[in-house]
Structures are given as C-alpha cells and as structure tokens.
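Lay summary. Proteins are chains of building blocks that fold into shapes, and those shapes determine what they do. In this project we predict the shape from the chain. Here is one chain we studied, written as its sequence of building blocks.
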Amino acid sequence: MEFTDSLIASYERYALEREHSSTDEFKVRERSEFLRWLRYEQRCSILELGCGPGHDAKFFQAQGFRVFAVDNAPTMVKLAREKGVSARVLDCYHLDQLSETFDAVYSMNCLLHIPQADIEGIFDLIAARLVEDGLMYVGVWGGDDFEGILERDTYEPKRFFSLRRTETLLKVLQRSFRLAYYRRLEPRDDIYFHSVIARRRLRR
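And here is the predicted shape, written in a compact code that computers can read:
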C-alpha cells in the first residue's frame, strides 16, 4: 500500500532521531496505568505494535514481562533488538502471520496511521492475537475526524494520519473489545490524546 510504503520511508529516515528523543511525561503516566492493570491481573506476555526503537518494549521487559515487538520499519526493529528486545519487521495488516497469542497488546501512537476504512479489521486482527479476555492498550492522538497527509508534519516524506474523535474511535473499538478505561488528555492546545484500555470480547 502506497501510504504504508511512505510511512516506512519516513520512519526509516528519522529512526535515530526517535532513538534519542525523550518520552512525553503524559505518555509515561498512561504507560504506568497500563502496567498497574497488567500487574493486578498477573499478566505475563505483551505484544507491542509499532514499537519504534524499543523504549517501551524495553521498559516492560525490565518489569518482568515477556515482550514481543513488531514494527514495519527495519531500522526501528534493529534498534529494538539492540536493546535485547525480541522484535520482528511486521505490519499491523499482517498480524495473522503470528501464531502465538498474548496476555496483552500495547500500542502507543501506531494506529493513528490506519485509515478509518481499515481500523475495524485491524482491531479484529489484534483481538485474534489476544488470549480470551486479554487486555489491549491504545494511546493515540485524536481530534476532529480527519484523514490524509498533514501539511504541518515536519517529517519527510509527510505521513498519512487518521485522527478520530472520541466517539468515532470508541464506536469501532467496541465492536471487538469491551472498554475498561478511557482518558482524554489535552497536552497541547490544538490536539488531544486518547488513552484506552480495553478487554477482548469473549467468543460466543
């Protein structure tokens, strides 16, 4: 897919910059909230989607979890592996290539690149990689429903974004998951951030 190829090119170009960047404090707080849920429910394994250079994967691994991470940018996967993380080059569209199931899925600012027409199918693929009643964390920028290239994007090539209002995101998410936790954060004036913990719906 053309938009995916452009994303890979963009993240390949800025991989080292992201390797040396710091994580926003509000994202650290929400990651800690998910950690609290994982510990309370005695979860053991995590699949991270869009792991980037592996900072979050390394964090969860240091907390004692077994982590497997995927990203569609080869340099990101290389950087994650250099941190001792088990990682593979894989796109969200091809999660069915994985045979293992996990106690939890973690995705920080990955699914904002999935078009609205595809997001329900991606949530179905994620659900299939979870054990029954497994947990999923999604952290993603939101806003007025928008799809396309953001001209203000500082990356080159400019990336495709699909920004969603709260109602739009939760409506499609709850077709495959049961909402357990939601926070809308406003760290910037012009955009907000969805922080979601959801539980895989039990098969009937």
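What the prediction tells us: The beta strands are 45-49, 66-71, 86-89, 102-108, 130-142, 146-149, 160-163, 177-185, 192-200.
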